[in-house]
Amino acid sequence: MKNQYLARVFNDPKWLGIRLQSSFLAVLCAVAFLWSSNDLHAQVSSYGYTNTNVPYSEITGGTLLGTSANDDHRFVDPTVLAGSTSVSSGPGFPIGFNFVFNGYTFNRVAVNSNGWIFLGTSSVTPSCNAVANSTSPISYTTSTVVTPTDLAARISAFGRDLQGQTGAELRIETIGDAPNRKCIVQWKNYRKYSTSTTLVESLNFQIQLHEGTNNVVIAYGTMTTNGSSSTAQVGLRGQPLSTASNFRGITSTTSWTTPTLSTGATNSMTYSPTVLPPTGTNLTFSPPLVCSGTPSASTVTPAIQNTCLGSTPLNLSATGQTPGFIGFTYQWEQSTDGGLTWVNAVGGSNATTLVYTPPVFNGPSIQYRLATTCTTSSQVAYSSVAQVDPPGVPGTQATALTATSTSQRSLALSWTSGTGSRRVVVISNAPIVDPTSGSGPAITANTVYSGSGQQIVFDGTGTSVSITGLTCGTTYYTAVFDYNRCGAAAPFDYYYNTTPGSNVATFTTGTSVALPVNESFATTTAPANWSTTLDHRVCTGCNRESR
């Protein structure tokens, strides 16, 4: 189409003379833009995703792969339809059309009986190369170099250890007419690998490659099992093979109709007798569109952090970008005058990605934001501002101090952390005196209460503590304080947030009650090891007698 357009330009007489030169330059710019747009490799991690329900349509033609006894088989060569359990590369099967995935064009496909396929191109040998068998295709990594690297492309509908059984089929067929053909790989009546004689399981699903839209559709037919809960990897994976960083998958332990997008390559979908994809479930993964207009503004976390001088602040992460689009560039910026002027971030690492590691902080306060630019429109959106401040009192106090269990002699507490780097928990049989900010030795905590006075029972970054050594029927005062600590070794600098709220609570242990006793001794002389004065009482709910 580009060549036809250029031909029309050069054959049109109105382009003669002086106007020919200026218009020729304009056409070259337009062509350059088209070529540059085509070179935008669409990371699979940016693919769009929808979950719908469409009647399942089984294919019955095409090419049958292997037998009903398939188990860890790979099908990489149309001349070897029996497949192999040891060969993972070959010429692949024709897709029937050019299919663009992860920004690369493929026309070959190979099949792994463990619920996934891998893509290839006839322009290289071998056309398809999975390196090795895998039951975890999305998270699989290898140090083996595959050339070209885009042969890492793989799609998983039910990635796990599967096997055929009586009545099972695995087949591939391209159906329809250009430009709306579909290449379909179908698993019929498969089951998870098991030596159990009581497992009754039938898994029916397809991976569909759609011509033109380049959509990947994973379709599920009737899925049944009486087996125990298991998992499968579902989604897309692109290069590199050395690290599982370019993926798009779904994950859930409860539902196949409302899963969430995976945040880790090892994420999976749970399936069990009560958690299965309904018949007709269609998962559609769509290539991202090239952005236009103004990008969405992202949100940066953490918004505020107090950082010790000479320490590296926490990573700044930007989220909230519109999914399903590519063509963005990122640049972190900084301001040292309260946001009046901004320049590109100085130092640190990954300043052109969504997660930025600021440099070592030596004060004064500094602000950061992420500038997101759509390359086709040149429009820019700025994120929320994150601020790094010198060491000080945490801005948010711990909250929701709660007793998760209370007995006669112990107490278990939990809380929600604030924005400090650490928490300290104290207990006392009298009202608590707040800690004081300043320099001091390392804190020593002991979860066994000494019996009286104010005592630190927890110091760290957790959200719970169990305290023992308490007395029956006693009211105890407790508090948790968020704080920041600076220094590589004691003495440390402490910055406590002492703002009162739900970080303070009182709890009472179980009381003691008198037990009815009928003393009827045969002798008026008590044994030497017995006390003649008995106090038969026990704490409510326990069996320990106090004498």
Task: Give an overview in words.
This protein is mainly β and 547 residues long. The protein folds into 4 domains: 2-38, no CATH class; 48-287, no CATH class; 299-389, Immunoglobulin-like (Sandwich), CATH 2.60.40.10; 399-512, Immunoglobulin-like. The chain contains 2 helices and 43 strands. Strands 1, 2, 10, 11, 12, 13, 14, 15 and 20 form a 9-stranded antiparallel β-sheet that branches. Strands 3, 5, 6, 7, 9, 16, 17, 18 and 19 form a 9-stranded antiparallel β-sheet that branches. The longest helix is centred in the N-terminal third of the chain and has 21 residues, at 18-38.
Q: What structural class do you assign from the helix and strand content? A: mainly beta
Number of domains: 4
Q: What does the average pLDDT come to? A: 88
Helix content estimate: under 10%
What would you call the shape? globular
Instruction: List how many beta strands DSSP finds.
Output: 43
Q: What is the topology?
A:
Blueprint: H1 2-11, H2 18-38, E1 48-53, E2 63-64, E3 74-75, E4 89-90, E5 93-101, E6 104-112, E7 116-120, E8 128-129, E9 154-159, E10 162-163, E11 169-175, E12 182-192, E13 201-210, E14 216-220, E15 224-225, E16 230-237, E17 247-251, E18 260-261, E19 269-271, E20 281-286, E21 289-290, E22 299-301, E23 304-306, E24 316-319, E25 325-326, E26 328-335, E27 343-344, E28 355-356, E29 366-374, E30 380-382, E31 386-389, E32 399-406, E33 410-416, E34 422-428, E35 438-440, E36 455-460, E37 464-468, E38 475-486, E39 492-496, E40 504-508, E41 512-514, E42 537-539, E43 545-546
Parallel strand pairs: 21-25, 23-31
Antiparallel strand pairs: 1-20, 2-11, 3-6, 4-8, 5-6, 6-7, 7-9, 9-16, 10-12, 11-12, 12-13, 13-14, 13-15, 14-20, 16-17, 16-19, 17-18, 22-24, 24-28, 26-27, 26-29, 29-30, 29-31, 32-33, 33-37, 34-36, 34-38, 35-39, 38-39, 38-40, 41-42, 42-43
